[in-house]
């Protein structure tokens, strides 16, 4: 088992890590159904705070219905990427920032990717809103 994991980790390249990092920046700022159609895996799933689990079609339909929004900058940092063969995990924090530099939204996330026909696809996504801590508890 350890030998298989070591071999899988050895297959990861700097290009793979760069591709995942670029996908993360795009995903966290994505309000474009065409981008999602191109980058979400066919069996994509995303648990929502309501307890629902959205599939690819539901995620894309949601984005299609969003009203036009002003341009926002996306910051994805810190970002940790772990790649094992044809799968990858991205963990970090994403912030949406307006033109005046105000942080409008912050989320901690875990995203899972798979490589399909040589291209990375987002398989699963989970976000938790980051809230200020007022008592020192996590």
From TrEMBL:
Transmembrane segments: none
Gene3D superfamilies in alphabetical order: 3.10.450.50
InterPro entries noted in UniProt: DUF4440, NTF2-like_dom_sf
Domain of life of the organism encoding this protein: Bacteria
Domain DUF4440: 18-122
UniProt protein name: Nuclear transport factor 2 family protein
Organism from which the protein derives: Peiella sedimenti
């Amino acid at each position: 088992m350890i030998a298989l994991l070591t071999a899988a980790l050895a297959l990861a390249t700097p290009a793979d890590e760069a591709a995942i990092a670029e996908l993360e920046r795009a995903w966290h700022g994505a309000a474009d159904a065409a981008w999602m159609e191109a980058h979400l895996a066919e069996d994509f799933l995303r648990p929502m705070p309501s307890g629902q689990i959205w599939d690819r079609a539901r995620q894309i339909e949601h984005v299609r219905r969003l009203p036009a929004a002003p341009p926002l900058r996306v910051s994805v940092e810190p970002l940790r990427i772990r790649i094992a063969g044809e799968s990858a995990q991205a963990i970090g924090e994403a912030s949406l920032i307006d033109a005046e530099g105000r942080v409008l939204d912050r989320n901690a996330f875990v995203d899972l990717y798979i490589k399909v026909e040589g291209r990375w696809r987002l398989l699963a996504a989970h976000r938790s809103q980051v809230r200020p801590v007022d008592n020192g508890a996590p």
